[in-house]
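thoughts on my protein:
***
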Amino acid sequence: MRTNGKIVSLKKALALRAALKKSGKKAVFTNGCFDLLHAGHVYSLEKARSLGDFLFLGLNSDASVRRLKGPSRPINRAGDRALVLAALQAVDAVVVFGEDTPLKLIKALKPDILVKGADYRNSTVVGAEFAGRVALIPLLKGRSTTALARKLGGRGR
């Protein structure tokens, strides 16, 4: 599948989810801003994908990133972030969402496995009640978008 074809609407994501369910395949979901892609992101996405048959990635829109991270973010626009993420072998579909949390997406997709970084606790993972189970992935020490942004000129938060 071409990279652009992996960037999908919620409607298309729901059709993909229905097909996965019908064929008995496990859907995995994770989300984030992914403003500056780094090794920690690649590690966590590959780990997430290894837990199932198909990885849906919920990507915060530009407005959502600004609300969450401040006026100097995002560094990269949503379309560019989505394209880079879709190019990764571990990612099967990217869905951009405008809310501050992916609750609406998770509630609609009802993934078999919801993945977040180990800096979360199961009780604080948004949408956990709509997933089959929650998996927490260890983070790579010293890898973060905030640290990279600070190195680039103080744009982190």
In short: Residues 35 and 44 are 15 Å apart (CA to CA). Helices lie at 10-22, 39-49, 62-69, 78-86, 103-109, 145-151. The chain has a mean pLDDT of 90. The first strand starts at residue 27 and ends at 32.
